[in-house]
């Protein structure tokens, strides 16, 4: 099964699992019901950003669905990583270095917290 067919099946199952209509999903991700229908029926393939947005709303992993990490020979962002990238793009360019520094400190603190034993 190719990646696009797999995505189509997961998308359809996600809608059913959530009890959500194509129109409701479209409203949440900024796409028309017709566009969502084309994706569900396999008539067209979503852009990566649209695929990530739908994966986020329907709570499925875009990277696992497309099997990107294994098949492409390079690391592709997961749905959560796409969200982080989209949020970062909203930061004014003159403040992006500051945001990166905050993230670096956050990672450092998280790593130090993981190193501590549960008895501390």
Automatic annotation (TrEMBL):
<dbReference type="Pfam" id="PF01381">
    <property type="entry name" value="HTH_3"/>
</dbReference>
<dbReference type="InterPro" id="IPR001387">
    <property type="entry name" value="Cro/C1-type_HTH"/>
</dbReference>
<protein>
    <submittedName>
        <fullName>Helix-turn-helix transcriptional regulator</fullName>
    </submittedName>
</protein>
<feature type="domain" description="HTH cro/C1-type">
    <location>
        <begin position="11"/>
        <end position="65"/>
    </location>
</feature>
<dbReference type="InterPro" id="IPR010982">
    <property type="entry name" value="Lambda_DNA-bd_dom_sf"/>
</dbReference>
């Amino acid at each position: 099964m190719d990646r696009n067919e797999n995505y189509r099946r997961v998308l359809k199952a996600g809608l059913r699992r959530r009890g959500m209509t194509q129109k409701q999903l479209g409203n949440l991700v900024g796409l028309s019901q017709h566009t969502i229908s084309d994706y569900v029926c396999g008539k067209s393939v979503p852009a990566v950003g649209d695929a990530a947005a739908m994966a986020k709303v329907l709570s499925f992993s875009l990277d696992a669905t497309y099997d990107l990490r294994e098949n492409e020979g390079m690391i592709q962002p997961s749905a959560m990583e796409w969200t982080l990238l989209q949020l970062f793009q909203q930061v004014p360019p003159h403040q992006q270095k500051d945001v990166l520094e905050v993230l670096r400190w956050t990672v450092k603190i998280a790593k130090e917290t993981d190193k501590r034993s549960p008895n501390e």
